[in-house]
Amino acid sequence: MKSRGLAAQSSTSSLEPFEFERRELRPNDVALDIAYAGICHSDIHQVREEWGPSIFPMVPGHEIAGTVTAIGSAVSKFKVGDRIGIGVFIDSCRTCASCKKGLEQYCENGNTGTYNSLERDGKTIAFGGYSNNFVVDADFAVHIPNNLDLAGVAPLLCAGITLYSPLKHWNAKSGTRVGIVGLGGLGHMGVKFAKALGAEVTVFSHSSQKESDALAMGADHFILTRDPATLKDLSRSYDLILNTVSAELDISAYLNMLSLDGTLVVIGLPGKPYSVGAGVLLGARRSLAGSQVGGVAEIQEMLDFCGVHNIVSDVEVIQADYANTAYERTVASDVKYRFVIDGASF
Ligand code: NAP
Ligand code: ZN
Ligand code: ZN
Questions:
Q1: Helix axes 185-196, 296-309, angle to 10 degrees
Q2: Which end of the chain is more exposed for a tag (fewer CB within 10 A), N or C?
Q3: How far, in Å, is the centroid of ligand 2 from the Cα of 237?
Q4: How far, in Å, from the CA of 228 to the mean position of ligand 1?
Q5: What ranges do the domains of the chain cover?
Q6: What is the per-residue pLDDT across 137-188, written as a single tens digit (0 to 9) for each?
Q7: Superfamily of domain 2-158+313-345
Q8: Is the pTM above the cut of 0.90?
Q9: How do residues 221-246 score in pLDDT, each as one tens digit?
Q10: Nearest to 319 by CA among 20, 39, 32, 2
C-alpha cells in the first residue's frame, strides 16, 4: 500500500516529505486512514538520537487516531468505518509472562515499536504515524469511543495511557495528594486523569504562564519550580508524584516532598541518569519507581474511561509542513498542550 508521510534521514536532518510502501493486509491486519497523529517528545528524543542510535529513515509518530478502510480475512474486532487508535507498539512476542498478563509494554523479548524499530521478521523497518495511512495487526489496535473528537484522542494513545497507567497502578483516588511535574503533553493528561479519579492535584512547572491553564484543567494547586526553596518548604506533602519532565531534574528535591511511604514515578526519559541520595529514600520509606505506557487492554480501558468522563487532550492542530517548527516549540515547552498533525496534510 502506498503511503505518504514525513521522515528524518538522520539525527541531524529535519523532517521532510517521504513516500514509502506499507505491507499488503495479512489475515489479522486492518488498514486505516490516519486522521491525526500526535507529536510526542519521545519522537524528538529518537529523531535526535538522544536515547542512543536510531533506525533511519524514520517516520515518527505513535499517537495515531483514524478510521478503518479495510480489514483482513480473519478480523472480527473491527469493521470498515470504525474509529481506531494505535499507540507506542504494534506487536510483541505474545508468549512471555508480561505479554500473557496483557502487559505487552514490558514484553521480555522486546515489543515492536511503532517506529524506530524492526518488525518481528527482524529486517523490515516499522514506519510510524506521521503519514496518511497505516497497516496494523488488529490485536494491537483499540476502539475509540464515538463521542470523542479524533484530534483530541490521538495524544491519548501515548500521553494519555502513560499517565493513566501509573495513576491506576498506585491507586490514585479521593484523598490522594498527587503531584504532576511538568505541564506538557503527558503532564496535562495527568492532571485530567488524577482529577477524574478524585485526587487532590498539584502541578509543578517551570513555566509561570501555565498557571491559569493548569487550574482550568482542574489542578488544585500550581507551584512554580524556578526557586529551589519553594520545594524545600513542601517537604512530606505528597503521596504520589509523577515526573514527566523531558529534561534533567534534581530528582532528590521531588523525593523529599513525598510523605511516609510515598512514591515518585519516573515517566520522563531525558536520556541522562538522575542522581539520587540514599538518605532521602530511607528517611520516609520512600519509593522511586518507573512506568512505561500501558498494555493494549489498559489502553482500551483508558479510552473507555475518557468516553465516560469526556476527557481528551488539549491540542494545536497543525499541517505537516509545520512539524519542524512544532518540534522547536515543543522543546521550548511552548505548546498548548500537544501538537497533532492533520492526516490529510501529508
Ligand atoms: P513535553 O510536552 O515537551 O512536556 C515536557 C514538560 O517538561 C514541559 O512542558 C515542561 O513543563 C517540562 N520541562 C521541559 N524542559 C524543562 C526544563 N529544562 N526544566 C524543567 N522542566 C522542563 O513532553 P512529553 O511529550 O509530555 O514527554 C515528556 C517526557 O516523557 C519525555 O522525556 C518523553 O520521552 C517521556 N515519555 C515517556 C513515556 C513513558 O512511557 N514513560 C511515554 C511518553 C513520553 P513546564 O513548562 O510545566 O515546566
Ligand atoms: Zn509518546
Ligand atoms: Zn512478550
A1: 70
A2: N
A3: 29
A4: 19
A5: 2-158+313-345, 160-290
A6: 999 999 999 999 999 999 999 999 999 999 999 999 999 999 999 999 999 9
A7: Medium-chain alcohol dehydrogenases, catalytic domain (3.90.180.10)
A8: yes
A9: 999 999 989 999 999 999 999 999 99
A10: 39
